[in-house]
Structure formats: C-alpha cells, structure tokens
Write a structure and sequence with these properties.
Blueprint (H helix, E strand, L loop, with lengths): L1 H8 L6 H12 L5 H14 L3 H12 L15 E5 L7 H11 L4 E5 L9 H5 L11 H11 L1 E5 L6 H12 L6 H13 L5 E8 L8 H17 L3 E8 L7 E2 L1 H12 L5 H17 L6 H13 L2 H12 L5 H4 L9 E6 L4 E6 L1 H11 L15 E4 L6 E2 L4 E7 L2 H14 E4 L9 E5 L4 E3 L1
Parallel strand pairs: 1-4, 2-3, 4-5
Antiparallel strand pairs: 5-13, 6-9, 7-11, 8-10, 8-12, 9-11, 13-14
Helix pairs in contact: 1-3, 2-4, 4-9, 4-10, 5-11, 5-12, 5-14, 9-10, 12-13, 16-17
EC number: 2.4.2.2
Protein name: Pyrimidine-nucleoside phosphorylase
Pfam family, one: Glycos_transf_3
Length: 439
C-alpha cells in the first residue's frame, strides 16, 4: 500500500492490479483509513486517467452484489440525476417511458441535505413499499415495464466506505472519484442503457458548466467502457425544477404533470430525457417520433395509468394517486409576498433547498426523520413579472416559528429587479460516446 500511495503521489499511473488490490482489501478492512486517505489526497492532486477511472469503477462494482436483469424482456433503461432541488423527473419519466413499452428498471437512493430522494417522495404515498426483493423487482418490470426500489445493501460496498472517508478528508471534489462513485452503483444494476442528468448551477454539486461537462464526459466514458449505452444531458439547476420542493408536494406535482398539467420546465425536461431513452432502447428511430410517442402517453393518460400501476404493484394505496388531496398535508400554509415590483432575476436553488430542510422536508444526517407534508411551492420563477403584494411562494409547515424563519429567508433569496437580458436555459448540452454538443 505504501508503494501505491508513493506512486500516485509522484504522478504515476496505477495498474489494474494495484487498483483492485486497494479496493478489495480496504473493503475487507485490511487497509487502514489513514493509508486510503493519503491515496485519495494523492489522487485529488494528480488525478486518474480514463483507464484508471474505469478500473476503479469496475473494482467498486465487483466489491459487492450485482443485479442480473437479463431475465427482463427488451432493452432495459435507467436514469440517474446528480441531484437537485424539486427534481421529480423519475416519477414522471419512468411511467412515460414504461407506457411506451420500454422497461424502466431503477434502484434509487434517499435524499441527504438539500437534495430530495426519489424513495422518500414515493413513501409519502400510504403503504408504498420501496424495499423489494430482486425477484419482486424483476417480476414487476416484466409485468408492467416499471419498478423503482431501494438499492440492496451490498451494492458497491467499497463506494460507501470510500465516500464516508472522502467526506471527512476534503477529497470529495475530484472528478474521477465522483464519477466512479456514481457509476459503480449504476453499473452494478444490469440495465442496458443509462441516461445521466448532470445538474449544473447553484442547487447542483457542479456549480459551473465546464465542471458539469467534465463530470458528464467522465461518466459517459465509464459507461461506454463498461459496455453500456450511456449518454448525459447537462441541465439547469440555478433555480428549482418545477414549483414544488418537499416530498408529498412533489408527488402531487408529478401527478399533475402526468395528468397533462403541472410546470412546463419539469414536463419539458422529462420529454427531453424520454426522447433519448426511447432512442437508446430502439423504441423510436428519430427524435420527432420519440417526442410524439411520449406526448401521446400524457394526452391519452397511459403514463398516469402506469404510475397508478407502479403504486399498486408496490403495495401503495392508489387512492392517494387518484385523489392527491389525501397525501400528507401540513398544518400551516403561509404566503410569502413580494415587497418590490419588477422581474425575478435569480432564485438560488440551493438556498431554497436549505429552507425546505429547515422545515423538515430533508435529512441533515441519514438518521434524520423526514416530514412528508412540509415544503415550499414556488408561485414565481426566474423571468416572471412581479408586483408588490404578489405571492412569491407558499410555505407548507408544521412549526410556525420555522415557517417565519423560512419566510424571511425566501424574501432574501428572491432577487427582484430588471428583466434578465438573456432567457434562461433548461438544457445546456448533450454528451454522447463521440460528441459533446453544447446548445
């Protein structure tokens, strides 16, 4: 281990055997934290090349269980978002794609900090079960083309140990370590094609476009190198996606979109992600054909009906989908009103996410308990016209003191002034095997 650390410290390239050695033996507890910490710091300063990063990912995949999905009929697709605020795309995209006849097999995580987790959102539906056996997961995808469940405990255990150590040693930000962490969990689950939604902006891990492009390229290279069809969209997270932030509120919004209503940006992103999944799965030959198929699932309510089926197959109470008013509700709803005339210039997504966290919609630590009913619903977004007295946002809270604290913060977060000179972008670019296309 000493030699491996020294080699990377001096700018050397680690061999496949050396990478396999430290991943396997650290996972088994045979290498102490302080040596892996030293190695990560050496990697942070000297980086890993494409081959090293792929080998690291492969070793992390091989550190635990792999989910064999070969018994699922057709080309199986998966989607991963690098995390944002109000990002409810999985609950809309999955049913849309499944309604087009494409198997959508997704194992998701829980939310931590200001970003929400798909599983937490689904659990705001009464009796919805996210813990499924692999057999149940596969059976559901074969029966209704969709299942969304929690990862088995032993998927990429090396990543869990590595991440905990990186978190306390200031080595989280290295692109190779981030990309291998994300992709090891995705590749352990045997989907045939993956779309990565790489967020960029104030509410994302990547704050600037160049870093987001680098991360997207690194992850696409890993996926392709591993033999999986992989592409990435770079999407805007300078303001929250959609209007709702908070678990039950986001489920209600997802149902609105599936019923043909809901925020335009959230719907449009689901369409764009869906187009790529239909092309990857060979369900459509052109973008135009894919778009028509996806729009028809909303118009005909087949995507909405697919969401009802998903809830039913995972033991949830479908009355909560048919009548979203049954979803958990907060005791108080407080209006945040504008004190200025003008246009919304900026709306920092991370700060809004932190406000939802104060209310109890997220987790400070993995042990924190979530309040499904609380959150924020935005009434005005970037570029919207605002007059004095207009409602900017609605705070859904169960603690009036926390609501008042959040109200003051939201008034500061909304930057109101002259209209922005440039229109905001929803999607910045597309990264595929051989191409980086910036829009």
């Amino acid at each position: 281990m000493y030699n491996i650390i020294k080699k990377k410290r001096d700018g050397g390239e680690l061999s496949t055997e050396e990478i396999n050695y430290f991943v396997e033996n650290y996972t088994k507890g045979k290498i102490p934290d302080y040596q892996i910490s030293a190695l990560f710091m050496a990697i942070y300063f000297n980086h890993m090349n494409k081959r090293e990063t792929l080998d690291l990912t492969r070793a992390m995949v091989n550190s635990g269980d792999k989910v064999d999905l070969s018994s699922i009929k057709g080309i199986k697709v998966d989607k991963h978002s690098t995390g944002g605020v109000g990002d409810t795309t999985t609950l809309i995209l999955g049913p849309m794609v499944a309604a087009c006849g494409v198997p959508f097999a997704k194992m998701s995580g829980r939310g931590l900090g200001h970003t929400g987790g798909t599983l937490d959102k689904l659990e705001s539906i009464k009796d919805f079960k996210v813990e499924l056996s692999i057999e149940e997961f596969i059976r559901n995808v074969n029966n209704i083309n969709i299942s969304i469940c929690s990862q088995t405990a032993n998927i990429a255990p090396a990543d869990k140990k590595f991440y905990a150590l990186r978190d306390v040693t200031a080595t989280v930000e290295d692109i190779s370590l981030i990309a291998s962490s994300i992709m090891s969990k995705k590749l352990a689950i045997g989907s045939d094609a993956i779309i990565l939604d790489v967020k960029v902006g104030s509410g994302a891990f990547m704050k600037n476009l160049d870093d987001a492009i680098n991360l997207g390229k690194e992850m696409v290279d890993i996926g392709i190198g591993y033999g999986r069809e992989t592409i990435a969209l770079i999407t805007n997270m300078d303001e929250p996606l959609g209007n709702a932030i908070g678990n039950a509120l986001e489920v209600k919004e997802a149902i609105d979109v599936l019923r043909g209503n809901g925020p335009k940006d959230l719907y449009e992103l689901c369409i764009q992600l869906g187009i790529r999944l239909l092309l990857l799965s060979k369900r459509a030959k052109t973008e135009e054909e894919a778009k028509i198929l996806l729009e028809e699932t909303i118009r005909s309510k087949t995507a909405y009906n697919k969401f009802v089926e998903l809830v039913k197959y995972q033991y949830g109470d479908i009355d909560y989908v048919k009548n979203p008013e049954l979803l958990p509700k907060s005791d108080f709803v407080i209006e945040v009103k504008s004190e200025k005339d003008g246009y919304v210039k900026a709306l920092n997504a991370e700060e809004i996410g932190k406000c939802a966290l104060i209310l109890g919609a997220g987790r400070e630590t993995m042990e924190s308990k979530i309040d499904f009913s609380v959150g924020i619903v935005l009434n005005k977004k970037v570029d919207d016209k605002v007059n004095v007295g207009d409602v900017l946002a609605y705070i859904h809270a169960n603690d009036i003191n926390k609501a008042k604290e959040v109200e003051a913060k939201i008034k500061e977060i909304y930057i109101i002034g002259e209209k922005n000179k440039e229109n905001k972008k929803l999607i910045y670019g597309l990264i595929s095997k051989d191409n980086i296309e910036i829009y």
